Amino acid sequence: MNLQDIFESLRESSKKLAQLSPGQKNKALLAVKDSLAARTASIIAANDHDVMRAKDKGMKDSLIDRLRLDEARMEGILSGIDEIIAQTDPVGQVVSGWTNENGLVIKQVRVPIGVAAIIYESRPNVTVDAFAIAYKSGNAILLRGSSTALETNMEIVAAIKAGLRSVSDCGAGVPGAVELAASGSRDEVEDILNARGYIDVVLPRGGANLIKMVVEKASVPVIETGSGICHLFVDESADLDRAAVIAENAKLQRPGVCNAIEVLLVHSAVAQEFLPKLSEKFAGRAQFRCDERALPIMQKAAASGVGAASGSLAEKVVAAGENDFDTEFLDNILAIKVVDSVEEAVAHINAHNTKHSESILTSSIKNASYFKTNVDAACVYVNASTRFTDGQVFGYGAELGISTQKLHVRGPMGLAALTTTKYLIEGEGQIR
C-alpha cells in the first residue's frame, strides 16, 4: 500500500471509528492486548535485532535503553492498555452547556480530531501507546517510527492489526485505523507533513532536531512535544542531603529520557557545601560541565577523592562550553551553574529551557511560590524530581508525549489531547 492509499484508508477508517461506542472500543483494545501478549516472544526477538544493529552503528547506551524491550517492559505496555480501557471515554463529554435567553440549548462536546500522525524516534512503546490513545479517543493514526526500531514496530503493528481483525466481525475492530509508514524515506516524512485534507494533526516525539524539522516543514497542524532541557534548582534553604538524592534520580535513573535534568542550578550560599555532596552521590557516574564558580568547587571535590569512583578528573569535571546550558545531552552529563537568587535561577531557566519540566528544592514558601508563578514550563515541581513528568504517573495510562506548547494542550497528553470540541445547538424554530 503506497502512502496515498494509506492516507485515504485512514480517513475512511476514522469515520467508522468515530461511530463506535465506548464498549466497542474497549473490546477492541482488549483484543489488541491479548494479541500483543501472544506475540511477545516474536516482538522481543525483533527488538533484539534492532538493538544489535543500533549497537553496531555506535548508538550510545542511554539511547539503546530507550529502544530496548524485554518481558518487564512488555508487561508495562500491556498494563498501559488496561489503564486506557479503564478510563472514561472522552468522546461525547459535555465540556459546557447553557440555555440562551431565546431558548436555544447550546452544548460544547468533545469529538475526535480525526486522523493523527506521530513521528517518533526509537521508543517502540510509543507505537502501542499512541495507537491505544488514538483508538480510545476515536482517531485513526499513522505511525512513523525511526529506522532503528523498524523490525520491532512492524511486529507490534502486525499484532495490533491481528487483534483488531479478531473483533472486526462484531463491529468493534477497525484494522484500517492504524498504519505504519515503514519505507524509511525522508520523502515519506515530508509527504506526511503536507497531507492536508488527510492528516488532521502531526505529533513529533523525539530530539530537538526532529521536532524543529516537523515544526518548520509541516503544513498540517502540529502539537509540539518537547525535547527536555530540564533544570533542578537547589535553593539556599533546601535540605541538601535530600537534594543530592533528588538530583541523582533526576539525572541518572534514565538519562536518555526527556524528563531527566540536563542542568543543575545551585544557590551560591550553599554551593560550597552542596556540590561535594553531589559529587559523592554521583560517584563518578556522570561528567560535570561547570560554570566558572562551580568548577573550582567540583575540581576540589574530585581531587580529594569525593565521588571519584571511576574516570579521571579531566574526564569527570570540565569547564562548561558555550552551548552546554542549551543542550539536551540525553547522557550521563550534567551542566552546573551557581546563581545568587531564585530570581536569577528563574531568569536563567526561562532563557534556556524547552518549556518541559523544572523543579525547585526549597524550604521557603515564598521562593517556591515565586518559582511556580514565574517559571514558563509545562510542569513545575517543588521538592520533587522532574522524572515524574509522565502520562502513566499522571494517571493517563500512557501518553502521546509531553506538549511544550501553549495552545490546545500542554504537558503529558492523554485521551483528551486527541479530541477537539464542537457545539450542538437545539432550538424550537428560533430565527435571528
As a percent range, the share of helical residues equals 40-55%
Structural class: alpha/beta
Sheet of most strands: 7 strands, parallel
Beta-strand portion reads: 15-25%
Please tally the helical runs, counting DSSP H or I stretches of 4 or more residues. Answer: 15
Query: How large is the radius of gyration?
Result: 24 Å
Strand line-up of the largest beta sheet:
10-9-11-8-7-12-13
List low-pLDDT spans: none
Name the average pLDDT: 94
Q: Quick one: how many beta strands?
A: 16
Distance between the termini: 50 Å
Shape: globular
Can you walk through the features of this model?
The protein contains 15 helices and 16 strands. The chain is of the alpha/beta class and 432 residues long. Helices cover 42% and strands 19% of the residues. 48% of the residues are buried. Helix 2 (22-38) runs antiparallel to helix 5. The protein has helices at 3-17, 22-38, 40-56, 61-67, 71-86, 125-136, 150-165, 186-193, 208-217, 240-252, 268-282, 294-303, 313-316, 342-352, 365-374; strands at 94-99, 105-112, 115-120, 140-144, 178-180, 201-205, 230-234, 261-267, 287-290, 317-319, 333-339, 357-361, 379-382, 402-403, 411-412, 419-426.
In short:
The chain is of the alpha/beta class and 432 residues long. It is built from 15 helices and 16 strands. The strands form 4 sheets. A 7-stranded parallel sheet has the order 10-9-11-8-7-12-13, sandwiched between helices. A 4-stranded parallel sheet has the order 5-4-3-6, with helices on both faces. Strands 1-2-16 form a 3-stranded antiparallel sheet, with no helix packed on it.
